[in-house]
Write a structure and sequence with these properties.
The protein is built from 6 helices and no strands. It is mainly alpha-helical and about 130 residues long. Bound molecules: protoporphyrin IX containing FE.
């Protein structure tokens, strides 16, 4: 199996991942809570992952900030992030193997864990 080396690889990875996300128990965050426009969201995610894995483009979005409005409508809890991460890891493993594939999993794990913490704090502070 090959490693993640091209922008096409990233597109395949991201498309496959969100196909399973949409069908999973966290799909409603995208479909109902945020009512995501997939034609806009997917290309944004290609750039995000390309910036993280190849460092040859800049991501101009706001990866953490984008999640606070969603968290306000429906708390994003640790178990949601566990589902997100396990889908991400299994999608990577299903399609690729190598150093960059490993990095895709560990970077996602770090961000997911920080994001889960920030969302939990946000929920707690709003309840005060
Ligand atoms: C339970 C876990 C998660 C859920 C339910 C979730 C859901 C969402 C939703 C609904 C959006 C907004 C889409 C839109 O309206 O365009 C979004 C944006 C985004 N998410 Fe997540 N997300 C999760 C975890 C993560 C993680 C772990 C990462 C990074 C590794 C991530 C990266 C991003 C990025 C980069 C954006 C775009 C930010 C921008 O607009 O600048 N998400 N997410």
């Amino acid at each position: 199996m090959k490693d993640i080396t091209t922008t096409q690889d990233i597109q395949l990875l991201v498309n496959t991942f969100y196909e399973s996300v949409r069908e999973s128990e966290i799909g409603f965050f995208f479909e109902e809570i945020a009512q995501v426009n997939w034609e806009k969201h997917l290309p944004k995610m290609y750039i995000f992952w390309q910036a993280l894995l190849f460092a040859d483009v800049k991501f101009n979005g706001n990866p953490m900030g984008a999640h606070f409005p969603i968290n306000e409508k429906m708390a994003m809890e640790k178990h949601h992030f566990d589902t997100w991460l396990s889908l991400w890891k299994s999608t990577v493993d299903q399609l690729f193997s190598g150093e960059i594939a490993e990095s895709a999993k560990s970077k996602a794990e770090n961000i997911a864990s920080l994001m889960a913490y920030k969302m939990e704090m946000d929920t707690k502070l709003r309840k005060l």
